[in-house]
């Protein structure tokens, strides 16, 4: 996709952790569920109005991280 489209994903702390969502999820209908890169379902409203405290408190989801970086474990046995 063209780089001028800017960010294609966003990180948001939700009760289940800090997950990455497609950027379009921010414009999703508030009543619609949105799915993180790792498959966690959240309410679209949960992506908004997050506080600094929540950002610090929630751990980064490593499954989302791997999805975005494409860094799958090199070792496969
Ligand atoms: Zn995740």
UniProtKB/TrEMBL annotation:
Protein's recorded name: Zinc finger protein
Highest taxon in the source lineage: Bacteria
């Amino acid at each position: 996709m063209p780089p001028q489209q800017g960010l294609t994903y966003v990180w948001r702390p939700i009760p289940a952790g800090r997950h990455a969502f497609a950027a379009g999820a921010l414009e999703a209908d508030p009543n619609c569920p949105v799915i993180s890169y790792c498959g966690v379902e959240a309410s679209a409203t949960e992506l908004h109005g997050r506080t600094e405290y929540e950002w610090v408190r929630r751990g980064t989801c490593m499954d989302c991280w791997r999805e975005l970086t494409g860094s799958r474990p090199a070792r496969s046995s």
